[in-house]
Amino acid sequence: MGAFSGGLTYRQYHVQGELPDNWPTTFLAEIRRLAHTPIDPANEEERSVGWCSAEFPLDVELAESDWHLNEYIVLGMRIDTLTVPGPLLRLHTEAECRKLMLEQKRDSLNRYERAEVKERVRLSLRARMFPSVKSIDLVWNWTDGTVRFFSSSEKTNLEFMELFEDTFRLSLVPEVPYTIALHERGLTLTEAQKARLEQVEPTPFVDADTALAALKG
Q1: With 0-12 CB in 10 A as exposed, 13-18 as middle and 19+ as buried, what is 28?
Q2: d(C-alpha 75, C-alpha 183), whole Å
Q3: How many domains does the chain have?
Q4: H or E element: which one contains 99?
Q5: Residue range 42-92, pLDDT digits in tens
Q6: Domain of 186?
Q7: Which of 56, 135, 203, 217 could serve as 76's disulfide partner, Cβ 3.0–4.6 Å?
């Protein structure tokens, strides 16, 4: 979602550090190392995060031509989740408990027996489910160090920063007015201006009482 289709909401970052020598070869190895691995329903894993093609999320066997497009590096960060919904689990657990009580001619099961049934049902349902699949696009202009990640979710952005830095061994700095000023082409700041910029605080354009009234509706 983002670079080729869907909404255009994104967060922008600046890359800190120098690209290594022969970086396409180095990056290819690291992208393949951290390519997305599908969740195995037989395991307890509920979430899997890794790189995929930005054009087709199920494509995780990437060649350099899949992600190195002129001055851009374009990838998808694929997130798979596999969890059994609570209401579904409760419904099937109750059905299994009733079946067991009928077979054993009992009026009830104790909490330990119910817990055992619940876990057995959870594993059975999990084995029959498909994980949800989501892919979020990354567009990195490696000539100017600008990175756009097409998600505004705080949790997802933190996951992205961790995956990016683990893959490329470079740091990401979120774009804020200070970093924009530092990286703006043709703009040279003196040390005094940089020091003043570090002390800048947000300016509210609506007074507190008006904002509170608007929130209350």
Answers
A1: middle
A2: 24
A3: 3
A4: helix 86-104
A5: 788 899 999 999 999 999 999 999 999 999 999 999 999 999 999 999 999
A6: 176-217
A7: 135
Higher pLDDT, 165 or 214: 165
Structure tokens at 22: 């022969």
Residues 182 and 214 in one domain: yes
Q: Which residues in 70-101 are b (16+ Cβ under 10 Å) and which e?
A: eeebbbbbbbbebebeeeebeebbeebbeeee
Asked if 160 contacts 134 with a C-beta cutoff of 8 angstroms, the reply is: no
- Asked if residue 109 belongs to a domain, the reply is yes
Does residue 5 lie within any of the structural domains? no
Instruction: Please answer whether residues 48 and 159 qualify as being in contact, where contact means their C-beta atoms are separated by less than 8 angstroms.
Output: no
Residues 50 and 64 in one domain: yes
pLDDT digits (tens, 9 = 90+) for 97-128: 999 999 999 999 999 999 999 999 998 998 88
Torsion angles phi and psi, residue 78, rounded to 5: -90, 135
* 45 contacts 65 by C-beta, under 8 angstroms: no
The answer to whether position 144 is within a domain reads yes
